[in-house]
Amino acid sequence: MSSRPLLLFDGVCNLCHSSVRWVLARDKRARFDFASLQSKVAREQLAKRWPAGKEPDSMVLVLEGKLLARSAAAIGIFRQLGLPWSLGAVFLVVPPFLRDGVYSWVARNRYRWFGKREVCSLPNPEMMERFLDAGEDLSSPRPGDESL
Q: Residue 140 falls within a domain, yes or no?
């Protein structure tokens, strides 16, 4: 696996897909790799560092061996993209319980507000190598995710 930051995202969430496209458009140096939370890659990464049964259901950033979730993941993404996006790190002054509260509120409502897909979509051919789960069948949900 690459040593680049790995962005794990909900592969059936339209908001998450839009966020990944936003990162791809601004990641001019190809700093990030990507994989859906429904993938084997994500399950392996989360199993190493996350309590079983408590896995996150929204974006996670694997950065230098650490897992960043919720607002910390978003700020970590901004910091990795460089200027002007790294200025988003200013939100670190907001207490995590407030940042994560807003993040969790949006995450809880994301399917209702933005919709969801039946299956994870494939990246375009130019980006394929950055999606670590590109060859995997992601049409079925993760175990325990009956809502997907």
A: no
Asked if 116 contacts 12 with a C-beta cutoff of 8 angstroms, the reply is yes
What pLDDT digit, counting tens, does each position of 6-54 carry? Answer: 999 988 888 888 899 899 999 988 899 999 888 888 888 888 777 777 7
Q: Within 6-69, where are the H helices?
A: 14-26, 40-49
Q: Is residue 135 part of a domain?
A: no
Q: How many domains does the chain have?
A: 1
Under DSSP, the state recorded for 53 is T
- Residue in the structure block whose two tokens are 């950033």: 61
Residues 31 and 3: their CA atoms lie apart, in Å, by: 9
Residue 98: domain span: 6-130
